[in-house]
Specification:
With 295 residues, the chain is of the alpha/beta class. The protein has 2 domains: 7-94, 434 Repressor (Amino-terminal Domain), CATH 1.10.260; 100-291, 2-Layer Sandwich (Endonuclease, Chain A), CATH 3.30.870. 50% of the residues lie in helices and 13% in strands. It contains 13 helices and 8 strands. The strands form 2 sheets. A 6-stranded mixed sheet has the order 5-4-3-6-7-8, with helices on both faces. A hairpin with a 2-residue loop joins β1 and β2. The longest helix is centred in the first third of the chain and has 19 residues, at 76-94. The protein is elongated, with a radius of gyration of 21 Å. This is DUF5753 domain-containing protein. It comes from Streptomyces sanglieri. Residues 108-287 form the DUF5753 domain.
Length: 295
């Protein structure tokens, strides 16, 4: 399916809607129906099916149920998962969160809106502590290095945005996070020894929270499979087919969409976990590295 433009008139193509549209497209093709035939189930024109499959419009629950019936999708769990995704997308489109006015980068606004409704995050980091785990001092050190001198006033805004995102780690329904961090990220001197020691101590505290798991991939593991760069996997329902993968940068994000692509990253993450230290042993390593940070 061709990648859609970011907007079309008053319509907006969202990541969640494209994910749902991709699922329905796959079911339609398996059923051997074209868009005109599928549209008959909705008493609509083929153009409506095209807009839905490209994520241009929010999904109505009756439309999702009718299409699943027409495509022969008989599993109640599958239909329920699709309905939940449709609801999440409608909520995301209506959301007027703090990020709507705090950010100028549309792609980052899209990610934070999705992070706000996600159930779980799996993250792999090569050289940096995951953003949701960073202390303000660590963030400032990164931001100063990334922002040009004539835009240094943006640093505090970038720090504020990331601190606000960290609220998802707490509360009645906290985000579940599983982070795998290469040992290099623990030892890279960001902001100096004091900043790094405080950062690692903060990381150790987070690792003991019930909704957070941290594993360290040690140097001694040798060649690893995730050398291509850091990535995150957001999950919205318990079905892995509805995961969305994103590449998170300091100021922007890019998406990897589709069931096959997300499944490949899920497998890659699982294999990296298997070669990493256990959460208990990882905590001991993080504590040791923190103690070794000298002024």
């Amino acid at each position: 399916m061709p990648k859609p433009r970011a907007d079309m008139g008053n319509r907006v193509s969202t990541v969640l809607a494209r994910q749902l549209g991709s699922q329905l497209l796959g079911f339609r093709e398996t059923a051997g129906l074209n868009q005109t035939q599928a549209a008959q189930a909705l008493s609509a024109q083929a153009s409506k099916i095209a807009k839905m499959e490209h994520g241009w419009v929010p999904f109505r629950d009756p439309d999702v149920v009718a299409l699943c019936s027409a495509y022969g999708v008989g599993s109640p769990d599958t239909v329920d998962a699709l309905l939940r995704l449709a609801k999440l997308d409608r909520e995301r489109r209506r959301a007027k969160g703090w990020w709507a006015t705090s950010l100028t980068q549309g792609s980052l606004r899209e990610y934070i809106a999705m992070e706000d409704v996600a159930l779980r995050l799996r993250t792999w980091q090569l050289a940096l502590i995951p953003g949701l785990f960073q202390t303000p001092e660590y963030m400032r050190a990164l931001s100063v290095a990334a922002v040009s001198p004539d835009r240094i006033d943006e640093v505090e805004r970038l720090v504020d945005v990331r601190v606000r995102r960290q609220r998802r780690l707490h509360g009645d329904n906290p985000l579940r996070v599983h982070a795998v961090i290469w040992e290099a990220a623990l030892r890279q001197m960001i902001g100096g020894p004091q900043v790094m020691r405080q950062q690692l101590e903060h990381l150790c505290s987070l690792a003991e929270m019930p909704n957070i798991d941290v594993q360290v991939l040690p140097f001694r593991a040798g060649v690893h499979l995730c050398g291509g760069g850091p990535f995150n996997i957001l999950s919205f329902v318990e079905s892995g087919a509805l995961d969305v993968v994103h590449m998170d940068g300091l100021r922007s994000t890019s998406w990897v969409e589709g069931a096959e692509e997300s499944a490949a990253y899920t497998e890659l993450f699982a294999r990296t976990c298997a070669t990493s230290l256990s959460p208990y042993d990882s905590l001991r390593v993080m504590e040791s590295v923190a103690k070794g940070m000298n002024e």
